[in-house]
Amino acid sequence: MNKYTILIVDDEMVFVQSLKNYLLEEGGKYIIKTAYNGLEALKMVEKEKMDLVILDLNMPVVDGIQFLTELYNRNIWLPIIVLTNILVMTPDEERDIFGEFGVADYIEKPVNLEELNEKIEMNVKKKEMGSDFQDIGRRM
Question: DSSP for the chain?
């Protein structure tokens, strides 16, 4: 069985550790990496292969939108699940996140862990089957 490397990017350390522990208990399917801001995450994505990123939008140093912009500018495409409160996003942010940047999915906070796990599995399977995440943003 393949192990998938997931990068969790969120500035709430307790949440990150809880999510990491939950995913590690999912039958050993995942290797979990963590970053507490977008700058740390960018450095990790450039050095290591990631199968999926779980990304908070509101963080210090480099926020989620800046992180997505940098991935786009560097032509790095991978499945990203955004953690957000969709009600506080502006229409422009929503268009950028789900259109131009090609975010694969989102989940609203507070996070339902079972729902998040389903979304992770669905997106890593899509990637494994060869879905082209690069085309997602350019089609919208």
Answer: -PPEEEEEE-S-HHHHHHHHHHHHTTTT-EEEEEESSHHHHHHHHHHS--SEEEEES--SSS-HHHHHHHHHHTT----EEEEE-GGG--HHHHHIIIIIT---EEEESSP-HHHHHHHHHHHHHHHHTT--HHHHHHH-
Quick: pLDDT tens for 119-136.
999 988 887 777 655 444
Question: Which residues pair with residue 53 across a beta bridge?
Answer: 7, 80
Select from 99, 32, 45 the least CA-distant residue to 71. Answer: 45
What whole-number distance in Å separates Cα of residue 40 and Cα of residue 107?
22
Which CATH architecture does the domain made up of 4-139 adopt?
3-Layer(aba) Sandwich (3.40)
- pLDDT per residue as tens digits for the range 11-42: 999 999 999 999 999 878 899 999 999 999 99
Q: What does the domain layout of the chain look like in residue ranges?
A: 4-139
